[in-house]
Amino acid sequence: MKEHLQLTVADILGRKHFENAILIAGEEGIHRIVKWVHVVEVTSIRNLLNGDELILSTGVAWKENIELFVSMVKQLIEFNASGLCIEMGTYLSEIPAEVIEIANQYQFPVIVFQQEVLFVEITQDIHSCIINQQYQMISDLENYSQNLNKRLLTIESYEDILQFIFATLDIQIIFRIKDREYEFVPEIKPIEQNGIIQLLERANKQNSDHFAFAPIYLFGQEYADLVIFSKEIPIGEFDLLILDRTSTALAQHLLRDLYVEEKKRVEEFEWLQGWLEGEHPLESINDYLLENGIKARTNDAVVLITKFFAIKGKSDVTYLKLLFRSVFEQNGFSVFAVEKRNEIIFILLNNRTKTNLKERIKKAIESIKDSDFIKNQSSAKMFIAAGRFIDTLSDVHKSYYSAKETVRIQHKMTKKEIYYFYEDLHLYRLISKMSKHMDLQELAMEYLQPVVQYDEKYNGKLLETLKTYLECNGSKQETSSKLFIVRQTLYHRIQKLESLLGNDFMEHEKRVAIEFMLLVNDYATPFSQKKEFKTR
């Protein structure tokens, strides 16, 4: 630790103007940091201090008034002054016992000059020392940053960066990538590690000047933590600045490692494509996972197909893959990616409990949607289709094919959400299968033709009204509210629907058939022709 960059009360006691000064109280506080020197001759200092100032005073403001003197010392302690230096003889002849008692209680140094001193010379001397130290700190920090940047070009592991900051500060370095074990530089015994971890966890809940934390963010997510720990001396300003520079360098190195790793995964394309097509037996899949250092904790998996449009370039697509990987891994999945034209196929292997599998996928997608990268892609569009959830890794192809089916259905739907799950599509899956064997529009028109023809002839809103009325389970109040029309207008439209579809169109079987045919019509009609819902 760069102790010389932290001027303390003990350092000041050794300077030339303090040769005849005496420390009469608060000896245990002589390691307090001094950031400035301030002359005070008033009784209230609430708006005068920022903290860590050494106070010089003749005591003229509280002479012969013990209560004022005690109040002044309490204020200095409250506002974190470094200590109090008092010139004796001119206005004060002794320091009250009450002041000495309070100073000792709070480890607040009280220093007396037994003869007249020139405060201007003291302030000049100490301020010059502080300014020189600040200049030295800036110079050391700049040298550190330059050397660190040079090392970034050649180092192979983040451990080299941890060794570099340790060599500079000479205090305990603690590093942890999320969901991994703590790493200590220098290495210490397990019992010592456990002790520091317990202190660290307490420091996370309440401030401690012996720990300093620098979270490392990648893709808007906290990826790792860098911590410095000083057992004896409080963490100083120089240490915090070095920590900040190092955390930035670590983030750059870790991102570079992830980027290189992602590039290597391109070579896996053929094998993964075979997995998606169901070409590999379970034994081969397990061997592949072991080769890649992955020990599947469950056999649960799902395939996501991400379609994207107007992503700026190849580097942004790679970044998008990294973003998906990082977010899904933090939500308990091992991730494999296959890139094809304007889509990326993700195979997600579940590493946690199955009960909240779907919820974790939704949470991850929402995090990606709210990330700065996606928000900055103003013209880009992205849609995600999730296939079937499978519980055997050799059935990944089944999830893949159902994800492709979800993409096809998603493309046909009027309401465009950013993601759909195959298991939530229900009737649309049946309609999709029907579309391969019959003319869906012809089927839908058997029920809906009178309504469609009426709308075309009179530019009416009957089809929209019918769909909304059914969605609201026949509630006239809710329907009129959703359509933004008065009740009388709705009653007129319902009467017209009854005349076209029959008075029994709300009876169970017929109603179910009409609802189904509305979905069929929605699926079968090209999106550009769905005029009745365009303005909603």
UniProtKB/TrEMBL annotation:
- Domain (Purine catabolism PurC-like): residue spans on this chain: 11-130
Q: What Pfam family does this protein match (any one)? A: PucR
- Span of domain PucR C-terminal helix-turn-helix: 462-519
Query: Which domain of life does the protein's organism represent?
Result: Bacteria
Q: Tell me what this protein is called.
A: Purine catabolism regulator
Q: Which organism is it from?
A: Neobacillus ginsengisoli
